[in-house]
Structures are given as C-alpha cells and as structure tokens.
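Appendix B, Record 12. Input sequence as logged:
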Amino acid sequence: MSEAEAGVKNLSPVVALGEIVLGGDVEAGGGNRKGVGEGDGGAGKRRLGNGDGDGGIRLGDMRVEGRSCVEGENSNADTDANQEPQDTDTATDTDTRQYISGWKMHMLTIGLWISLFLSTLETTIVSTSLVSITNALDGFQVRDWIVTAYLITYTGFLVIYAKFSDVFGKKTLLILALGIFTLFSILCGAATGIVELIIFRAFQGIGASGIYSMIMAIAPTMVPEKEFGKYIAVVSTVFVLASVLGPILGGAINSHTTWRWVFLLNAPGGSISLILIALFLPSSQPTTTTTLLAHLQAKFTKSAFARIDVLGTVFLLAFSVLLVFALETAGSRYAWSSPVIVITLVFSVVAGAAFVGWEWWVERVAGRQEPVFPLGLLGDRVLACMMA
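Logged structural output:
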C-alpha cells in the first residue's frame, strides 16, 4: 500500500465548516500541522484560511468555499432579528378605513337593494307579459326580441361598466346607470310599437347592467371584512325574491291592469333608490370641489377619457352581443345550421380573438390607454376559475 493510500485510509479527525464535514488533518494558515501522506504521491492538504472564518478548503485539486459554524449561527440570528420587526408591523396593520353606520347605512342599503331588485325583476316579470304585449302592439312574431334585446346589452356592458368605474368613479357610474334604467323603463311603458319597445328595452338593459356591476363592486367596500358575509347575504336576497315574485307580479298586472305597468313600476322605485344613493353613498373619488358642476368637470377630463380603451370596448361589445344573439335565437327563431347563426358565431369568434390580441398589446405597450380587461388577471387561478 502506498503512502498516499495510507494517508487517505487513516483520515480520522473531523472538521465541520458550515454545512460541510470533512475528515482529515487540518493545516491552518501559518501553522505547522501537515496532512497525512503529504509526500510525492500525497493526497494533498486540507487548508483552512488565516483563522478569519471565511477560508477555503483545499483537497487535492478541489476547492470548496465555506463559512464557519459560528458565522452561520450569527447569520441565522441576524435573519431572525430582522424578521421580528416585520411580524410586529404585520400585527399592527389594521383596517383604518371609515365606514358609514346607523340609519345612513340602512337607508343606503335600502336604495341599493331596491335598484338591484328592479333590474333583476325585469328578466322574469316580462316573460309572463309577452302575450299581452305582443297582442297590444301586433308583434307576436318578434316577441322573443323583447327579452333578447335586454339580455344582450345587459351582458355586454358588465365588464365595460366595471372598467369605466376605475376612471370616473363607482358612484358616478351607478347613478348614471340607474338614471338610464329608470328613464327607459318609462319609455318602454309609453311605447306605441313593437320595434320601438325593443329598442327601448336594449337601452334599459344597458342601465340594468351598470346597476348590477356597480353594486357588486361597491358592496364589499361598505362594511368591514368581518361583516362582509352578512351584508352580501342581505343583498343576495334580491335574486331569490325576484325569481319568485317576477312571474307572480307579471300575472297579477296582466289580470288587473295594463301591461304597461310591467315597466312603469320601475319609475317610483328607481327614483327613490336614485335619491337615496345620491345622498348617502360616499364618493369613491373624493374631491375638494363644492359644486356639482365643478365635481363633474373634475371627473370628466381629457386625461380621464385618454385612459379609455375604445377599440377594446368595441371588440368586447361585438363579441358578447353576437354570441348572446346566436345562443338566444338558435333553435327557436333560426336553425343551428342556418347562415344567420353560422355567420354570427364566426364573427363572434373573430371579435373575441381580436379582443384578446388587442388587450395583450395594450397591456404591454406603454401608453395612456388602460385595457378594458387586463389579461394578467387570469394568472390568478382562483379568479380564472370564478370567471370560467
């Protein structure tokens, strides 16, 4: 057995540096201890630096950089010490927002509830009145459009309202949507022709879309997080009551009065909720202006309009309107294989693809425009599953 082999075989002491454990003798810088088998065929030396804790370890031609155990412990202690203040800051981070309470909160809740109830009721109450409406206006063949026109604009403007509220404010958009809904409800009740009624119903759907979108965005900000479930449960009773009372109210109105009250009943309820929301809902974008005109001028500025993604809005509307039209009329008014449905679906797909491509470009290219629907939101798996 050679001296080198004997030197390697007889390595006995153990030296620990950080996470590295090596066997063998150690030669400290400036010391006189030499490794076993350091002759002509020696296995090399293990060399520790000049005692400063950051030396290298040399074994043959291999060099391993390490840190001393003491310094590692000091580093861990420093890390723990640095983390402790962060935990303290997190613990002291509390919700400092101011929430309305008392009778003001109750009045605002009533206003929001009434407006959401009326807009949801329109999707069910009209269905039971279609026969009376079409008989009076002589439009039985296009009766489905009375419902379809409302649903097309209702679904098409949901995302648009949500984005525009970031620019102009949630309260402003809610009041605007409620005013549109109430105005065109009155016009629907005063319509004298079936085509006129269908057009007014489309604009009524635009208002109802804004009511739903804005209330779903405003409600979570009205109460502290611990009361969020309770408040949303109260607001959600709207959908249950609207589904149950819609057909009942529609049948009662047609049996005891004219069909026009199906739409006219939104006038008093919409006016009351409009006043309550205008008085008690805090502005989402507070300003120092005192007059209404100055407040509106501060909101609707050139810089605000420059943030709007006009082309993305057009693509989104085209995609949603064409898709809803095809799904609503296929199998009833038109066959699935009819050219109308096929062409509509093709253009819907093209508009959808153009919308995705355009939003991707707007989101990544520097500019003042803000995407209507940032595609980065889909990176959150929870949010993506909720939208699916």
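The chain has three domains: 3-69, 102-300, 309-388.
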